[in-house]
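Researcher: Here's a chain I'd like modeled. Treat it as a single chain, no partners, no ligands.
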Amino acid sequence: RAGWTFVAPQAVVLLLFVVVPMLMALWVSVSDWSGRGSPFSAGVNFVGLENYDTVIGSDGLARTDLMTSLRNNFYYVLIVVPAQTLVALGLALVLNSPVLRLRGFFRTSFYFPAVTSSVAISVVFIFLFTDSGSVNAVLGLVGIDGPAWLADARGTLHLLLGAVGVSEPPAALAGTEVMGLSLWDWMAGPSVAMCTLIFLVTWVTIGPYKLMFLAALQDVPRELEEAATIDGASRWQTIRRVVVPSIRPTVVLVVTLGLIGTWQVFDQVYVISKGDPGKTTLTPAYLSYDQSFNATGTNHWGEGAAIAFLLFALIVVLAALQRVLTRDRKDR
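Model: Modeled as a single isolated chain. Structure tokens:
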């Protein structure tokens, strides 16, 4: 009784604001709700997997947009998760050094972006990257047309190939389609605008992960590092062979949280780009919102909810796969 009494307030909050909305959204994804009135009213009909078939099983703009968003998010995850993990670990190693002065100041300053509103930070980035912003002013000094560069809808891999004279895709890549996109489009890489978002999110997220690593490093016995040093190990060998294995559970936690968070990216895209230029910053989370609130059609609410649950299933599968691949050998 005492246990349930203490957890009851949180359980009620989770039930009302998480479980119930999820069940309602699940019903919307398999119904023809028009967005008016209650989704449980008599006029709302069950359509089964029709909305899911529209966004993933049938040729058309809906599936093309979903595949485009998955491609963009894949490159986003591929860069952000390793970058934020390595940078956060590097900062934690530096801040854990006993010879570093002003450690309290640096620990606090690196955490500031995490406690600042992501919308406010995104607005600042908008001002930095406007046509007359400071970033484009600096790029202009070295002869780079910043506005045109950021508005280029080509991926960075296509840009690099274009720089060496490969402007047209090979026929084999251009003529082969996978889920509505050609292989050439799948291999585009992140656009310059997406790279800007990657830099922003990496900078914002390293603060919390840095604290996790720092807390884990403080639990590593100094005797282990001293023993490695006496045995002739270099600083890099000590970090690789002693420190990192000792904080392995924290590394797995950070990678898992990063994997989940990067597939859910929404606010920066909504504030800064809204999927532009040329849908190169479109993500599944933003596409779900855009399909629900901005699209027109009979079942656009159901299609938006279907995209959200497809993203949910993808995150669950990837998180489970990552857990299997990173668990200890003795537990396999």
